[in-house]
Write a structure and sequence with these properties.
alpha/beta; five-stranded mixed beta sheet; 5 helices; 7 strands; globular
C-alpha cells in the first residue's frame, strides 16, 4: 500500500461550470448562488471520483446544488486535480474520502453564516454540506442477466460482481462521520457516482 495522500488547498483548486467557464472564487460563487435561490430548500453536496491514467491519478471534485422542493435536477461545478499515480486501489479510493473531508471543511468555514439548510437541526452535530462517497456498502452486486438467457433457462444462477470499493467503505465513512459530516454512499451518491464519474472519462 503506497500512502500518497496529499494536503489539498482548495483555495487554489479552480472549479468550473459544465460549459467550461472558470469560477473565480468558489466560496463567492456558492454565496451568490444561494442569494439567487431559496437557500433553505437547497442541499449542497460534494463528491469525488478518481481514475488512474498512464502517469497520474485524476481526482474529480464536484459541488452540487439540489432543491429538494422543486425536485428539478441538480446544478454543479467541478474541478480536476492530478497527482502522482496512486498504484493500489485501496489508497486511491481512501484518498477520495480524505479529500472530500478537506473540501467539506473548506466549505464549512467559507459558508458559515451564509448557508443553513432547513434539514439541519440546531442540536445535530452535522456540518453544512453533505458528502457523497463513491464507495459501495455491499461486498457484491447481483448482475442483471440478459432476458434471452432468462427465457431459455429460468434456473440459470445469478452472477455477482465483487465491489472493490467495499474494502474501503468502513474506513471512508468513519473518517467523515467522525468529523460531523452526513455521508451518502452508493447507489445514492449522485455527486460522486453521476457528476464526478462523468468527468473522469
Amino acid at each position: 500500500m503506497n500512502n500518497l495522500t496529499e494536503n489539498l488547498d482548495f483555495k487554489n483548486i479552480k472549479f468550473s461550470k459544465i460549459d467550461g467557464h472558470e469560477v473565480d472564487n468558489t466560496i463567492q460563487y456558492i454565496i451568490d448562488y444561494l442569494n439567487i435561490h431559496n437557500s433553505k430548500t437547497l442541499k449542497i453536496s460534494i463528491g469525488c471520483d478518481s481514475k488512474n491514467k498512464v502517469e497520474n491519478t485524476l481526482y474529480v471534485f464536484t459541488i452540487s446544488f439540489y432543491d429538494f422542493c422543486l425536485n428539478n435536477g441538480a446544478h454543479y461545478i467541478k474541478a480536476k486535480y492530478f497527482q502522482k499515480r496512486v498504484k493500489d486501489t485501496w489508497s486511491r479510493l481512501y484518498n477520495e474520502a480524505v479529500y472530500l473531508k478537506e473540501l467539506g471543511n473548506y466549505l464549512e468555514i467559507g459558508l458559515k453564516g451564509y448557508y443553513k439548510p432547513i434539514f439541519i437541526e440546531n442540536n445535530k452535530p452535522t456540518k453544512l454540506v453533505e458528502v457523497h462517497l463513491d464507495l459501495n456498502p455491499a461486498p457484491t452486486t447481483k448482475l442483471k442477466m440478459p432476458k434471452s438467457i432468462n427465457r431459455i433457462n429460468k434456473k440459470t444462477p445469478r452472477k455477482f460482481s465483487t465491489n472493490l470499493s467495499n474494502s474501503v467503505y468502513d474506513a471512508g465513512v468513519s473518517l467523515l462521520t467522525s468529523d460531523g459530516f452526513v455521508v451518502v454512499s452508493k447507489p445514492n451518491a449522485y455527486s460522486s457516482s453521476s457528476a464526478a464519474d462523468k468527468h473522469t472519462k
